[in-house]
Predict the structure.
Amino acid sequence: MSGWAQFKAIVRKDLIRELRTRDMLVSMILFVLLAMVIFHWAFTVKGQTDLTYFTGGMLWVTFIFAMLLGLNRSFAQEKDEHCLDGLLLCPVDRVTIFLAKTVGNLVFLLIIQAVAVPVFALFFIERSLIGDLPPFLVVLLLADIGICSLGTLLATISMNTRSRDLLLPILFLPLIVPLLVAATSATTLVFADGAGFGTVASRILFILGFDAVFLVAAWGTYDFAIGE
Amino acid sequence: MSDEHDRQDGAGPLEIEVEGLRKSFGRRDVLKGVSFCVPRGGFLSIFGPNGAGKTTTLRVLATLLAASGGSVKVAGHDVREDPMPVRRAIGFISHNAMLYPDLTAQENLRFYADMYGVEDREARITELLERLELSARRYDVVRTYSKGMRQRLAIARAVLHRPRVLLLDEPHSGLDPRAVDILDGLLTEIRDEHTFVMVTHNIAKGLEWGTDLMIIEGGRIAYEHAAGVDHESFSAVYREHVHDGSVM
């Protein structure tokens, strides 16, 4: 059997399960929409305010907390139904499990963002975003890879603990801050100033480095992380 | 390869070799130097009270737990140094079905078939579902199954890739009589082609199937014997070696 076939099998299984139950997606979408509505009413309570310099922060804080909801769910069933044992009994490289779980989480995050970004633009951006989309989408995709790789690694570690719902945010939030800062400032520069690739290049490189560090860290430690 | 190693008594090549197995969880020593071997085609029944270390032994054999000391070989491969061939060689049936409740029976089996690289996937799934009397429910999600049906599907999951060694952890636990019959029928069919290790509290079943019997108590082997012991004698031995002494 090939690692690629096993990778596809795990991703397919997670997608089928989630599209059938929607227990991750529904809670994540509801959270994102609720956060948008609250931000909108909170910032416009005294009439029209220019929010363009808040956009990056609002967007990424919302995504991070929505992803925390999803990460907790993504391993809950594997553990609760002892399916993780079934998965670990299979002759599959543990890194393949990590990559498949990361890609599954990435797909769910992208689905959330496909719903959230248009709503966000409607509420908070007063000009057309068409020209800003290429740098924004690059920042979005690279930051998502970092969020999902770090999140999947930490969700795996916390899954084996008694207080997994508490441990995941305690581990995840401090470690994701550097990526969050880079993604937030890049997004704000794009939305507020119409910055192009040249302006946000250093931030994109930083996010790329972050992704590489945690992908390599997961590569080296996942066998231990997913074990006993 | 060591799977060609012959037993000293000439009973055939060894499929499972455990030497001085130790396992600790923190400061708690669960296994304190367990040694045994099972020849190819053998059936080892392991008895013992709760917490004796039976399931831990099975989980180390299955590569689900790392040993703290000693050596364990399954199908000629060290479970720590070379776990992939071990995983290909074993099937694990537990009282936990290890099935995804929101997938159908067919989707569950397809997933595991892909993970094991089963080449005749659809034919094999159909064959097993028919054999286990689950064909009519193959498109239903597992969440809607009874405990007995889930356990039957768990058997299909475990034997899907035609393993050489079957590890059974309380396989009869929670089964209705019909499911027990089906499980026993399947075990009878595949008995000659496989090596088995079964952990059980059910002395009647353990004696019925076992070619070798073992009692683990407090992380150590308290008793070992070849099959041929009657229920009454073995129950007496069990009470003698196990402090709580309750037998089924």
User: Anything to note?
Assistant: Chain A has a mean pLDDT of 90. The radius of gyration of chain A is 18 Å. Chain A touches chain B through 27 residues (CB under 8 Å).
